[in-house]
Amino acid sequence: MIFAARGMMVSLAFFAFTYSFFSLLALLAWRGIGFFSRSTKVPVNVWFGLRVLPFVFSAAITVFLAFPSFLLLEAHSMDEDAATFALSVSAALFLGAGLYQVMAAAARTRRVVAECLEGAKGFAADGAPLALMSPRSVLPLMLIGIRLPKILISEAARDILSEDELRAAVRHEIEHWRSRDNLKKVILSSIPFPGMAVLERTWQEAAELAADNGAVTSREEALDLASALIKLSRRFPPQAAPAFTTGLVSVPGSVATRVERLLEWKEDSAPTHDRWRYAVPLAFAAVLGLAAKLGPILVLMHSLTERLVP
Amino acid sequence: MDKLFSFFDADPRASLGPLERQVLEVVWGLGTATVREVVRGGKLWQTYPTIMTTMHRLFKKGLFDRAPEGRAFRYSPRYGPQELERIAAEESIRQLLRSQNASLHLSYLVEAAGTQDERLLDELEALVERQRAELKKGEPK
């Protein structure tokens, strides 16, 4: 029992070390990409990947390599020092903070969404999972929910937008739903790390551009969406969307960039969704390769753990 | 009283006299320089002692680093032109916020920014309408 607890402590300390290291690398990569290319040209999944992969890599290495290597190769005499203990506590705090952040944000979101849903009625909108017309929506258009999402359309938005503009705006929210952006917000909220807010903001802005891009298939539609953005941003002062929701004009300062991009829309701007399919067999091959060499890798991991968290 | 405080609090890097700015520009051009090199450059008509005191003042203000070279010093600028502009802008905003009428000044700032936004939206709306008209005519650009 004590041995397993030691294993947990060392693994947590190792996780804290690797998570910090990979997060710093991700921030450097973010700076590098921003330096060499315009951030609006970078695919949205790159930003999300940069933000999430440090956690995924560190968690996977810790759970599948560091912890088993400790159980198999560590001596039973206790030789961990105070720094290991401090690192493991900081990792536990990180994980706890993530959990607390998600729960608090979910409670806040539930409260705001409940208020927005008061008096909401069904509304027929093309292809929308479930559209509701709301007299009390805090944003002109919002996508709420994760598993069973709904699109809330404010009465003011319906009144000021033409039919085509409203359709384009709804398609924008549908794109957020297809990209699971609300779920991604929950994931980001659950893995906090100091200094990562800039990367999250970059992802959020890129997600809005990607949703715009996915929502239009012709120049007419691009102009409808651009016009909707201008009309709504004039009427509704910019404000942040509740935590786990997305809103059409909720990210401050990005409306002009989005309209400019829509004005430059061309047929070949249509998004391609198939690039990431190649990643799945590659990841599978990597896992198989690791499994084939598991013994030597565990020995290597154990010596690495000994060095990093003695 | 406000003025007195702002005088003491003001970031010296943000307030430059005309000669200090000229000297700074010469040293930016040269990369690093001694007093003699600035004087010999011929861009300034002031005498050696004036340039020397000015460069010393810039060093005291934290705008120059210096390293001994023989019996003189070699000065190098600590900030580029853009960085210095940012410092000056930050200092101006800080002073604005420190003043008695900070909220009034802020409201002017917000109003000015709002007008700018409105203008930008007007321009973008006109562009959208123009492109729509072009599409209707069947003459896509």
Salient structural properties:
heterodimer, A: 310 residues, mainly alpha, 11 helices, 5 strands, B: 141 residues, Arc Repressor Mutant, subunit A, two-stranded antiparallel sheet, 67% helix, elongated
Would you mind describing this structure in some detail?
The complex is a heterodimer of chains A (310) and B (141). Chain A has one domain (2-308). In chain A, a hairpin with an 8-residue loop joins strand 1 and strand 2. Chain A is built from 11 helices and 5 strands, in the order H-H-H-E-E-E-E-H-H-H-H-H-E-H-H-H. Chain A is mainly alpha-helical and 310 residues long. The longest helix of chain A has 36 residues, at 82-117. Chain A is elongated. The model of chain B is unreliable at 1-9 (pLDDT under 50). Chain B has 2 domains: 2-79, Winged helix-like DNA-binding domain superfamily/Winged helix DNA-binding domain (Arc Repressor Mutant, subunit A), CATH 1.10.10.10; 82-137. In chain B, strands 1-2 form a two-stranded antiparallel ribbon. Chain B has 141 residues and is mainly alpha-helical. The longest helix of chain B is centred in the last third of the chain and has 36 residues, at 102-137. Chain B has helices at 2-9, 18-30, 35-40, 48-60, 81-98, 102-137; strands spanning 64-69, 72-77. In chain B, a hairpin with a 2-residue loop joins strand 1 and strand 2 (72-77). Chain A binds chain B through residues 219-220, 223, 226-227, 230, 233-234, 255-256, 259-260, 263, and chain B through 118, 120-121, 124-125, 127-128, 131-132, 135, 140.
